[in-house]
Amino acid sequence: MKKRSGFLTGYRLVFGLLGFSALVTEIAVLVERNVFDPVNFFSYFTVENNILVVLALLLGAVGVRADKFRSAVTVYILIVGLGFAALLSGLDGVEFTAVPWDNAVLHYIMPIAMAIDLLLDRPRVRIAFKRALVWLLFPLIYVVYSLVRGNLTGWYPYPFLNPANGIEPLILTVGGIVVLALVLTWMVARLSSAKGKTA
């Protein structure tokens, strides 16, 4: 038990710091190129959720379980990873990070790392799926924020959120993401301990 606990602490520390370093590297490179826009940068769903992942992993490394928080963050970062793979990775000539290695860390490595963390240390409370649905408020609010801000500024964090590329594709894509989020929420809720107290 102690060996496993020690492994988890080291695991969380390594990947927490890896995610943190990727975010810091992105900011540093953008500042160096004189193109850093903090509002735009922190308006990326990828950036916001990698910050949450870093926080969840580092809190876990110091012994703070925060099971419901870890579970919600796992759903969010899996949306990032799967959504990027399905919608953005094949776009030619489009770069979503200033440093290629950061792209791999933020879009692929961190989602896998967070999923493994939850599998290795499953929540000790039973998370009811109906209650877990509240987690979806964050991505829904994010979509509304992106559309409203994009309409005001003309800047959209992702091509599929830009109505200029078609209203129907926008609706279908957002609908697909909602379905993905529902499936992931159900799966993560199922991972929680059946013997634990319902949360």
Description:
70% of the residues lie in helices and 0% in strands. The protein has eight helices and no strands. It is mainly alpha-helical and 199 residues long. The chain has one domain.
List keywords for this structure.
199 residues, 8 helices, 70% helix
Order of helices and strands: HHHHHHHH
Compute the separation of the termini in Å. 25 Å
Q: What overall geometry do the principal axes of the alpha carbons give?
A: globular
Question: Which whole number gives the mean pLDDT?
Answer: 91
The major β-sheet equals: none
Helical content, roughly?
A: over 70%
| Beta-strand residue fraction | under 5%
Number of helices: 8
Low-confidence stretches: none
Summed up, the domain count is 1
Q: Given the helix and strand composition, which structural class is it? A: mainly alpha
Rg, Å, rounded: 17 Å
Total number of strands: 0
Quick overview of this protein structure:
This protein is an all-alpha fold and 199 residues long. The chain contains eight helices and no strands.
Give the topology, please.
Elements (H helix, E strand, L loop, with lengths): L1 H31 L5 H4 L3 H17 L5 H21 L12 H21 L8 H4 L4 H17 L13 H25 L8
